[in-house]
Amino acid sequence: IIEMKYMTLLAHAHSDDEGNREVMRRRETKLQAKFYISLAVIFVIIYYVHYRWVLLLIYSFWFPQIIYNIKTESKRPLHKQYVLGMSLTRLVCPLYFFGIRHNFMKEVFPDFPTDYEICYVLVFWVGLQTAILLNICIK
Question: Which of 75, 133, 123, 64 is nearest to 96 (CA)?
Fold first, then answer.
């Protein structure tokens, strides 16, 4: 909701139709409609797609940086400690939720799965991305 407000403010700031409020309202309505429709579609996709695929997609967070490094042919633009720290801290939540049998999600949703396999897959997936980003795998 806050980001939507910022997007609206940016649309107002970059608009050529300062005097015509009706045109601005239509643009704002279209922008909000696109945002909320896309948000609803994402929730429906997440609901119907198995959570493992969604987690793999969410935890592909280093791919944009890897692609950027390939396009710009940059070598190690990020510090090694930063990449390792971000990778490890981002893994804490899914490893806690899916790897610990008696976590607080079991209190809210008793059928919440304990899935060690997704823990192994996520550690491997993030480790592979980290290794590629740190140029360990590619020499």
Answer: 123
Q: How far apart are CA 51 and CA 85, in angstroms?
A: 25
Residues 133 and 99: their CA atoms lie apart, in Å, by: 26
d(CA 50, CA 83): 28
Residue-wise DSSP of 27-58: HHHHHHHHHHHHHHHHHHHHHHS-HHHHHHHH
Residue type, 79: H
Q: What is the largest distance, in Å, between two alpha-carbon atoms of the chain?
A: 60
- Whether residue 133 contacts residue 69, with contact meaning beta carbons closer than 8 Å, is answered with yes
CB 59 within 8 A of CB 90: yes
* pLDDT value of position 126: 96
Q: How would you label 97-129 residue by residue, b for 16+ Cβ within 10 Å and e otherwise?
A: bbbeeeeeeeeeeeeeeebeebbeebbebbeeb
Tens of pLDDT, residues 56-111: 888 998 998 888 888 888 766 788 899 999 999 999 999 998 999 888 888 888 88
